[in-house]
Design brief:
151 residues; 4 helices
Length: 151
């Protein structure tokens, strides 16, 4: 049988309050940027959809918002961390490719399930997909692109 001893000043679990504060800071700014960018993306999609159709409107909206969103994250969200330029450019490209493919698959799946989906249904579906994709992107940004250098 194993027992745990406690002594004054001894911590059973070491805490790093700075790391938790930093994570909260990153998450808060990420949500702000994501909300603004997703809103712009939805607006562009709705504006372009009647003229170009769902797939093209989605690709153009993603292309126009991805670079600005990523730059915001570099300058504000993860400003306390450095990253290599090549890694950032690769992240820009991979973000665009991911959301382009992901959005196209989501729209194609919706069209397979619903005959002539409305603009609002397509937009809502893309917003839900963007939320899920955004969680994955936050993880990639925080732990790969803007990873803290090993000490």
């Amino acid at each position: 049988m194993t027992t745990t001893r406690w002594a004054p000043g001894h911590q059973l679990i070491k805490r790093a309050p700075q790391r938790h504060h930093e994570l909260g800071h990153h998450a808060a700014w990420y949500l702000v940027a994501g909300g603004v960018t997703t809103g712009l993306q939805a607006g562009l999609f709705l504006l372009l959809r009647p003229e170009f159709g769902s797939q093209i409107a989605n690709l153009v909206a993603i292309a126009l918002t991805t670079v600005g969103n990523t730059e915001f994250h570099r300058r504000v969200t993860f400003a306390d961390r450095s990253s290599q330029a090549g890694k950032r450019h690769l992240q820009d490209l991979l973000t665009f490719l991911f959301y382009a493919a992901y959005g196209s698959i989501v729209l194609a799946s919706l069209e397979a399930l619903v005959d002539e989906p409305s603009a609002l249904l397509e937009t809502g579906t893309l917003l839900a997909a963007s939320f899920v994709g955004g969680i994955a992107r936050f993880v990639v940004l925080r732990w790969w692109v803007f990873a803290r250098a090993a000490r």
